[in-house]
UniProtKB/TrEMBL annotation:
Organism: Hydrogenimonas cancrithermarum
InterPro entries: 4Fe4S_Fe-S-bd, 4Fe4S_Fe_S_CS, Fe-S_Ferredoxin
Record PANTHER family: ADENYLYLSULFATE REDUCTASE, BETA SUBUNIT, FERREDOXIN III
Protein's UniProt name: (4Fe-4S)-binding protein
Entry superkingdom: Bacteria
A Pfam family this chain is assigned to: Fer4
């Protein structure tokens, strides 16, 4: 069944079951569609699919996918983040070690910055004339990810910075994408870092994207450097804080049921909702599925809460049995009748009046 979810070309795969558009049909995520220079991500009968005849396996979309549904056979960004952190080479370049800098997300760049000693350089000198950088979309995406990574690092006053190389040296050798692709294939087939593979193996089976767990592990390693004030107003593309209005929440629990990473979960006694910011990927499915609009996004970001997956109780209800339908509902005082039955009375009460009049 799992293999049936994969649409695969020679060097690139799309995992339908990981895609947010398959998790919840009303989700509007279209990052990969807008970013792909070849238009290889398309809708076929309302389902997002990969056109393997068009895809060139450039991997420019890999870093942008919040759920890691896009997979390059030649380049694993999670493994690269760990291995590059252990190497002396400070430069990330599409001519040396990555198929495209856009294959790395903000989370990967933060992980690299936290784990690697010394400076980090992102080589942007080749982006302007790159064949896949149409309308400058790829370069803008890379720049946005670097900016976001630096903003995140500044939260705990980290001295780490990600420098950008924009000028091409006169003596720079010409390396075509085919040559780099061959090099990446060889690298992908070699297992030369036992510690790297061990860490990745330990993360398998999680509902969270691996890049998120690597980021939190990296933050835990740097936790002693956190400043005393870890709560800030910050807007990041890969995580948001959540709040729930207890007065309008009906305890339907659909927000937790549809959450793809289990950032939202249900209390054991079914009386409320718990939130873990460290697991949230800002997919907005919970916002879309909440019919009364009780759940909201909050730009308040706490580094400790995020890093250590601290649980936040968003809402807790006192449940009573409705006198009409005999179903448990959040009781807020007054008549012990649920909102659904009150609404039915208000809209269809004349039916019962007519029945009484006929007796």
């Amino acid at each position: 069944m799992r293999n049936e979810s994969l649409t695969a070309g020679d060097l690139f795969k799309f995992d339908y079951f990981k895609c947010l558009r398959s998790e919840f049909a009303k989700n509007e995520c279209r990052i990969c569609i807008d970013l792909c220079p070849e238009g290889a991500m398309v809708f076929d009968r309302t389902k997002l699919t990969l056109d393997t005849e068009v895809c060139t396996a450039c991997a420019a979309c890999v870093g942008s996918c919040p759920t890691e549904a896009l997979i390059s056979e030649t380049f694993d960004p999670n493994r690269f983040a760990l291995e590059f952190s252990q190497q002396k080479n400070p430069k990330i370049s599409c001519k040396e070690n990555v198929p495209c800098l856009a294959a790395l997300s903000s989370e990967h760049l933060i992980t690299i910055a936290l784990r690697k000693e010394g400076e980090i350089f992102c080589d942007l000198a080749h982006c302007e004339g790159c064949s896949i950088n149409r309308d400058n979309r790829i370069l803008e995406t890379i720049e946005t990810m670097i900016d976001e990574a630096e903003r995140f690092l500044q939260i705990f006053e980290s001295e780490k910075r990600i420098e950008r190389v924009r000028e091409l040296p006169d003596d720079a050798p010409e390396t075509g994408r085919r040559g780099l692709l061959k090099k990446l294939v060889n690298v992908a087939n070699e297992v030369n870092e036992e510690t790297t593979m061990t860490e990745l193996m330990n993360l398998s089976g999680e509902k969270q994207p691996l890049k998120r767990i690597l980021l939190k592990n990296s933050l835990k390693m740097a936790a002693e450097k956190f400043s005393e004030e870890t709560t800030v107003e910050a807007d990041f593309s890969f995580v948001v804080n959540k709040t729930i209005d207890a007065q309008t929440c009906t305890n339907c629990q659909e927000c937790a049921m549809f959450c793809p990473t289990e950032a939202l979960s249900i209390l054991q006694d079914n009386t409320g909702i718990i939130f873990q910011m460290g697991k949230c990927i800002a997919c907005s499915i919970c916002d879309d599925v909440c019919q009364p609009g009780s759940i909201h996004s909050d730009k308040t970001f706490d580094l400790v809460t995020f890093t250590f997956d601290r649980m936040q109780l968003l809402v807790k209800h006192t449940l009573e049995i409705c006198e009409e339908c005999k179903v448990a509902f959040p009781y807020r005082g007054g008549e012990r009748v649920c909102d659904r039955c009150k609404d039915f009375r208000a809209n269809h009460g004349d039916l019962f009046t007519m029945a009484r009049d006929m007796e």
